[in-house]
Amino acid sequence: MVDRTAARLQDVAERAGVSLATASRMLGDPTYGGRAGLRERVMAAAEALGYRPNPHARALATSTSSNVGLVVHDVRDAYFAHLSGGAIGVAERHDLLVSMVCTYRDPHRELEYVERLAAQRVRAIILTGTSFRDRSHAAQMTERLEAYQAAGGSVVSVSRGRSVGHMVEIDNVGGMRQLAHALVEQGHESFAMIAGSSRLLTVQDRVKGFKLGLKDHGIELGHDDILTTEMSREGGVAGAELISHRRRRPTCIVGVADVVAIGAISWLHAHGFDVPGDISVAGFGGIPAAIDSVPPLTTFELPLEHIGQTAMELALRPPSPRHMVEMTGELRMRESTRDPRS
User: Fold this and answer.
1) pLDDT classification of 131: cutoffs 50, 70, 90
2) Does residue 338 lie within any of the structural domains?
3) Residue 29 has pLDDT above 90, yes or no
4) Strand runs (DSSP E) across the chain, as ranges?
5) 47: confidence class by pLDDT, cuts 50, 70, 90
6) Using an 8 Å Cβ cutoff, are 329 and 303 in contact?
7) Burial letters for 71-105: b for 16+ Cβ neighbours within 10 Å, e otherwise?
8) Strand-pair category, 330-332 with 298-301
9) Statement to judge: residues 127 and 226 lie in one domain
């Protein structure tokens, strides 16, 4: 006898030999076509297993739910704190509850949290952190997000690299390219970049943009000029120390994020270096601490709260049609950089 209380959507997908997302679509959307024969296989598997969709759970995943999942890398990082603040402000105006989780840039933790939020039937899942250069992880995330969206949930990514849901795309390449142009025009010709892990697409894009900007002026950023550290204040500290021991120091250090650049300034000051007298430092992101840094930090400033607001507003839209919003920022030249020839 078939146990009609134990069958899950995953069981149906496995029996029919289809993905979880396909099974969810076939069972949840009568108008969804798909390849010939797939619907019959899925329906036959559901009947054989005694699977019955839970209409109450489906309702919770749509407009009747008052909960939104917000996935960030690290809420202690001011970048994500201010972005989250913008998102939460919009949620409060719509009387929504926000459940925030931190992945700490761990792809396995990100996948786990997405699964747990989907199981809780939140109305939407907003992924504010960068996606990863990991094909296996990307495939698993796509499958989970497609199944969640097919069940009525809404997905928003504040990053490129995901094919499911709405997207807020930040112009990391263009912003870093502008920063590179400004620093070269200021008089700099030698650089070191303190970057995070290249498995993060945001890091990849920012490094690419800076290299393109230098190349526009005939300057090459060598492999040894890019230091891989944690994308944190501690990473900036470690990078500045390594750069200080070079026989030929660059005239400018660029942090892949403001928090990295501020960490570098802190170490340089503590060890007798004058910024920008001995070496200039620039960042990227526009966190409020950038203007309070001593000296105030040159950076490409992103509208972080507005990005968070836009992400939450997209989360309130139906999953289809897909919306993509591009965001850029403004260059802020401040006292942490100056012409090295002066």
Assistant:
1) confident
2) no
3) no
4) 67-72, 97-102, 124-127, 154-157, 166-170, 191-195, 226-228, 252-255, 280-285, 298-301, 324-327, 330-332
5) confident
6) yes
7) bbbbeebbbbbbbbebbbebbeeeebebebbbbeb
8) antiparallel
9) no
pLDDT grade for 4, boundaries at 50, 70 and 90: very low
As given in the structure block, the two tokens for residue 243 are 């750069």
Same domain, 199 and 93: no
Give me the torsion for CA of 329, 330, 335, 339, rounded to 10°. 110
Q: Are 286 and 131 in contact (CB under 8 A)?
A: no
105: Cα separation from own chain's centroid: 9
| Section 194-211 average pLDDT | 94
With CA atoms as reference, report the closest residue to 156 among 333, 342, 339, 309.
309
| 16 lies in the same domain as 76 | no
Q: Residue 159: pLDDT band by 50, 70, 90 thresholds? A: confident
Residues 166 and 278 in one domain: no
Give the pLDDT of residue 78.
93
